[in-house]
């Protein structure tokens, strides 16, 4: 049984709207705010200054390195354990 084009969109459109409103829109707004100096009411564009500050912070760099190490070790161990049980 073939579904007509307008019936197809009737089923797909709610899911697309959900994805756009709940996932994509906040993601894009977050990217926009990362390039601003926002106090919640006003946002002035400052470009990459926030990222320059972030990547000069030693605590952030330590936590980033720890996250990378944890991820690599976790993936390796999970695969080795899975291979051992296979």
Report the portion of residues in β strands. Answer: 5-15%
Percent of residues in helices comes to over 70%
Q: How many helix segments? A: 3
Report on the biggest sheet.
Answer: 2 strands, antiparallel
Describe it for me?
The protein is flat. The longest helix is centred in the N-terminal third of the chain and has 30 residues, at 5-34. Helix content is 77%, strand content 7%. It has helices at 5-34, 49-56, 58-85, and strands at residues 36-38, 43-45. It has 2 domains: 1-47; 48-86. It has 86 residues and is mainly α. It has a two-stranded antiparallel sheet.
Q: Any descriptors?
A:
86 residues, 2 domains, mainly alpha, 7% strand, flat, 3 helices
SSE layout and pairings?
Blueprint: H1 5-34, E1 36-38, E2 43-45, H2 49-56, H3 58-85
Antiparallel strand pairs: 1-2
Write a brief structural summary.
This protein is mostly helical and 86 residues long. The protein contains 3 helices and 2 strands; from the N terminus they run H-E-E-H-H.
């Amino acid at each position: 049984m073939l579904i007509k084009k307008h019936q197809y969109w009737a089923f797909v459109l709610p899911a697309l709207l959900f994805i756009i409103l709940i996932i994509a829109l906040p993601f894009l707004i977050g990217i926009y705010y990362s390039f601003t100096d926002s106090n919640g009411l006003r946002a002035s564009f400052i470009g990459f200054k926030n990222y320059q500050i972030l990547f000069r912070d030693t605590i952030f760099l330590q936590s980033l390195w720890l996250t990378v190490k944890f991820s690599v070790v976790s993936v390796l161990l999970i695969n080795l354990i899975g291979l051992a049980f296979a």
